[in-house]
Amino acid sequence: MKKADVFEFFRRLAEYNPHPETELESVNDYTLLVAVVLSAQATDAGVNKATRALFATVDTPEKMVALGLDGLKRHIRTIGLFNNKAKNVIALSESLIARHGGQVPADRAALEKLPGVGRKTANVVMNVAFGAETFAVDTHIFRVGNRTGLARGKTPNAVEAVLERVVPQPFRLHAHHWLILHGRYICKARRPECWRCPVPDLCAFRPKTPAPPQKAAPTG
What we know:
Blueprint: H1 3-16, H2 29-38, H3 44-57, H4 61-76, H5 82-100, H6 108-112, H7 119-130, H8 139-148, H9 156-166, H10 175-185
Helix pairs in contact: 2-7, 3-4, 4-5, 8-10
C-alpha cells in the first residue's frame, strides 16, 4: 500500500471511530494486565463476563495471591484454558509483588518476564496503560494487515514490524485498536462486510463481498 494510501486508510478509520478503546474491562493497570492474559484464545466479552465480579473485589496482586488458585478458578472457569491461565495469573501476581513492588512495569522486557505474558500482551498493556505507540498483532490485525495489503507478513511479528514502519502520525497511538475493531466488526474472517467498509477502494482484497439482498417489504 502506498504511503499516501496508508495515511488515508487510517484517516478514514479515525473518522469512522474517533475514540477507539479496548473492549476489555478493567479498573486499573493490574486488572488490565490480568484481563489481557485471560483473553488469549477467548473473546473480550467472555472475559468481561467472568471478571466483573472478580475485579470488584480483587484489584491488586496482593489480593489476587490472597484469593488463591482455587478461588481464582471459580471466577474464571467459563474462560477457555482457565486452569493454566489461573496458574499464570497467580504466578505473575507473586512476581509483581516480589520484583516490582506490586506495580505493573511500563517496560516491555520486564512485562515479558512475567508468567503468561508474551509480546502481544506486553504491547497491549504498554499501549492502553502507558500510552506507548505499540502494535499488538492479534488474529484480527494479522488478517486485516494481510488481506488489505496494509501490512503483509507470514507471522504476527512480521506484520508488527511492517506496521511499526508504515503507520504515520497522528495515528500511531490508536492504530492497533482501529485495526482490531475493524477486523472484529467489518473485515471479518469468514465473510468480510465490504459493503459497509470505509476503505474499500484502498484495500487489495478481491472480489469484494456484495451486500446481502434486502428482504422485500411486505405487501398488502
